[in-house]
């Protein structure tokens, strides 16, 4: 029987939430682009050819999980990936494709 220590359950739940946030093609594309370069919503929207509201929803999910961070530059917010773990995961996934 598989023995799971209670202290590990929280860690597994946290990992699962991180993976859920990445488990969408659009969010993976956004994260990959932000790993390469800091970008604002307009740039991301134009690149993906999606409505700004859709891009903003995806950014909100990534931000809530601590994967990205926004920094205000005048009237715009530029986003970057702040999680080194996510950077490694996405690079590893892309290398395998």
From TrEMBL:
Keyword DNA-binding assigned: yes
Gene Ontology MF terms in the entry: DNA binding; DNA-binding transcription factor activity
Domain of life: Bacteria
Ranges of residues in domain HTH arsR-type: 7-97
PROSITE patterns, per database record: HTH_ARSR_2 (PS50987)
Gene3D superfamilies, per database record: Winged helix-like DNA-binding domain superfamily/Winged helix DNA-binding domain
Pfam families reported in the protein's UniProt record: HTH_5
Keyword ATP-binding: no
Signal peptide: none
Keyword annotations: DNA-binding, Transcription, Transcription regulation
InterPro entries linked: ArsR-like_HTH (IPR011991), HTH_ArsR_DNA-bd_dom (IPR001845), Metal_resp_trans_reg (IPR051011), WH-like_DNA-bd_sf (IPR036388), WH_DNA-bd_sf (IPR036390)
NCBIfam families: HTH_metalloreg
UniProt protein name: Transcriptional regulator
Species of provenance: Desulfotomaculum copahuensis
